[in-house]
Amino acid sequence: MTEPTTSPEHARLHDSADSDAPWRLWGPYVSGRQWGTVREDYSADGEAWDSFPFDHAHTRAYRWGEDGIGGLTDRYGFLNVAVALWNGQDDRLKERLFGLAGPQGNHGEDAKEYWWHVDATPTHSFAEYLYRYPQAAYPYEQLVAENAARGYDADEYELSDTGVLEGDRFFDVVTRHVKASPTDMYLEYTATNHGPDAAPLDLVPQVWFRNTWSWGRDDRRPSITVQDRGEGGDSHVVLVTEHEWLGRYVVFAESGAHGPPEVLLCDNETNTLATFGHGDGQAAHPTNAIDQTVVHGDPSLLAEGTGTKAGLRWHLDAVPPGESVTVRLRLVREDELDDEARAHPFAHADATAQARRAEADEFYGTVIPAATPEEDRLVARRAFAGLMWCKQLYRYDIGEWLEGDPSQPEPPAERRAKEEGRNVEWRHLALADIISMPDEWEYPWFAAWDLAFHCVAIAHVDPAFAKDQLRLMCREWAQHPNGQLPAYEWNFGDVNPPVHAWAAWHVYAIEGAQDTDFLVRIFTKLLLNFGWWVNRKDSDDSNLFEGGFLGMDNIGPFDRSEGLPEGQRLEQSDATSWMAFFCLNMLRISWELARQTPAWDESATKFLEHFLAIADAMNHFGTHAVSLWNDEDGFYYDVVVDEAGRSTPIKIRSMVGLLPLMAVADEPDWVEGDLPDFTHHLAWLRENRPDLTRSVLHTVHDGEPDLTLSLMHPDRLRRVLSVLLDESEFLSPYGIRSLSAAYRDGVSVHLDGQDMSVRYTPAESENGMFGGNSNWRGPVWFPVNVLLTDAIRTYGVDLMRDETLEFPTGSGHQATYKEVALGIEQRLIDMFRVKEDGRRPSDPVHVPTGPLWGQAHPTFSEYFHGDTGAGLGASHQSGWTSMVAHLICITHRDVHEEIEK
């Protein structure tokens, strides 16, 4: 990393390139949901939502992780801190975010809370998180019952629909983390009553150890001991935590305006009687003892003096309307304390918080270009904050998980059966890492292609972490020995699109195009991944690829992950395009590496050959000369091919037919002089195999020749772009749709004796394919939009530099290719800008209007309505939607030049 020249946060990052660096030890690595995950599922049927349901989370110890509201933990998740709340009405302590399990929601899993990631620096020196807590009893049963009664064609029933938030009758609870040093942290919790009446509130920050001792693998037991209950004058509550790896940390709880908190001790162990209805192995002081005391007035389960979980309870009889209350903790390693700090542990809390906030402002003032309008600056900073808050500890050792734990019942045999068991072919996977997650609740597990997009955005603020994440997916304890990258925990063997090489190149370029060591590390592992694709997803060696759903869940008229009838195969336009795209990104990295090490020159030649073979197959293949290109329609389609070579195109204009646009690369000017093997071989191919080099396109600008490799020839490019830029087809006011809007009344295809139909559905899914919670039949998806605009801009560098096209189609307005790319990107950013009605188009429809809602707090959804831009799917997925921050940054700071070189 280059020397720091800007801010204290940059200096901390400079000293924190390694994942084990001190400033990275503590962070917001606590998941928003651990229940219902595959990791906690030890059932025979693999129904993870049922194996560990929400109602168990209050009384049962987790095996692999923890969850909480705005939590803080160390990088191995041993010691955790998060706030719990009680409004005097709820039937349980609010310790975690609530949402519907996958089978409960009418569109799959669905968080039913409102929270926002307000701010965060990459080293977690400063962070803020806002949770909105109703003052009325939380309507758990109502939300479950009402959504269960609704079908796919109905809107989801949300918390705002229940009426509990009317009149602003809620508390805004802000969690603030402030690091004085890597192991000295202030934790501040501020609750503001926005309602018209005074309301009671219990603020109960909790400190607890993850249960590592109940499974028969490690009997070492950490402890939390009460050293001072704050009952003497100005003294504060003091807890001492002790753990073999972490050592001794002291927790101070401030005895401020609200007095000292009540200390509630127990153990982070399962209440078997409350959870399973029997007392076998019942813990004396189980994990729900704090809930039992605060909510039900029964302290009988509490421990005395020592435990592994502690609640610090401030009871407030009535918080006046419009007023705020604040309570503070300090978590500090004991050897950092001197006598003065012990006597006055909060003496420097305010000054430290002010300094860290100012440093965060200075840092983002450098990261986000100065020319950025304030509204866009807010959106970008909130997107970056979401990425930082959604870095979570992910622990999962599949070998141990399949085997089961020595002190627990043996897992059912079905779990390990090759045909029935989940992830049985991934026994090598063993992770205990901080990983960038799509979000903290609906997807609290990584997905390979999501993570790649995250890394491009993260590279603007923390390139070291971005590079570490991309390498992690390629390490031996994650990447399969056969070369496949892990998809996601529900099925690591599923297939995500191969975007890793693209992301690696962009991260490299955004950081300054200097770290070739990073490129070497990624490239060598992606060679294995490329081989896996070629060997596993090209079943007949035709250079046309299958791949299944490839992340675009229900985009086709049938489930593309399911096998076709005997003797048939699906040649996929998108799978083949992804592989051509993969080739060109590997080629681009090869070019770069060969500038310094000539041995890589031959790798460039290899990927040139493979790209040309795929391009040839894409446009002309098989004994019957079938093509994925349909010249009559001017579009690419998936094709079903039977044993006799007969083909049936799936003639539906969807994103799968736009993706061939992605496969384009300009040869840098220095290649001809610096890479002799590549240059000589290309010349030989042009002379001796002109049939293969039709995708090598030459132009001349200012008397200098330029070379572009493209899956699409200019005539086809123009035809596809005319459809993409047609507002009655793909171009929406807020980006590129995933299915043509021309199919508002539906379209049918006849296949294997059946009529199958697809209809433009701009909002939520209307069927249960892939759980019904992901729709690619019309909405705008950020990641593929970014790939397409990136490609369109590349076409405008050399190949189509001197051409313009109608933008939008039929408007009569001519624009260059670069202007078209920028225009689409501005539509994507425009989703997040407040309009005259006071709403951001990107706000989900269930987010109320008003200054306390979308105007102040942009929401980052999983995907967006194809007509209105309204947020859909997971409503806290800054994840790949954080690419809006990438677009904002590159719009106002020209990093395109580095990326294009």
Brief account:
With 901 residues, this protein is of the alpha+beta class.
What's the layout of helices and strands?
Layout: H1 8-14, E1 26-27, H2 48-51, E2 69-74, E3 79-86, E4 99-100, E5 110-111, E6 114-120, E7 126-134, H3 140-148, E8 170-181, E9 184-193, E10 199-209, E11 223-229, E12 237-243, E13 247-253, E14 262-266, H4 272-276, H5 289-294, E15 306-307, E16 309-319, E17 324-333, H6 339-343, H7 349-367, H8 374-389, E18 391-397, H9 398-403, E19 430-436, H10 448-458, H11 463-473, H12 500-511, H13 516-536, E20 569-571, H14 573-594, H15 601-619, E21 629-630, E22 635-636, E23 638-641, E24 647-650, H16 655-658, E25 664-666, H17 671-674, H18 676-688, E26 696-701, E27 704-710, H19 714-724, E28 731-732, E29 735-736, E30 747-751, E31 754-758, H20 782-795, E32 804-806, E33 814-816, H21 817-830, E34 863-864, E35 871-872, H22 878-881, H23 883-892, H24 896-900
Antiparallel strand pairs: 1-2, 2-3, 3-10, 4-5, 6-7, 7-8, 8-9, 9-17, 10-16, 11-12, 11-15, 12-13, 13-17, 14-16, 18-19, 20-23, 21-22, 23-24, 25-27, 26-27, 28-29, 30-31, 32-33, 34-35
Question: Would you give an account of this structure?
Answer:
- The protein has 901 residues and is of the alpha+beta class.
- It is built from 24 helices and 35 strands.
- The chain has a nine-stranded antiparallel sheet with strand order 6-7-8-9-17-13-12-11-15.
- The longest helix has 22 residues, at 573-594.
- The model has no long low-confidence stretch (mean pLDDT 93).
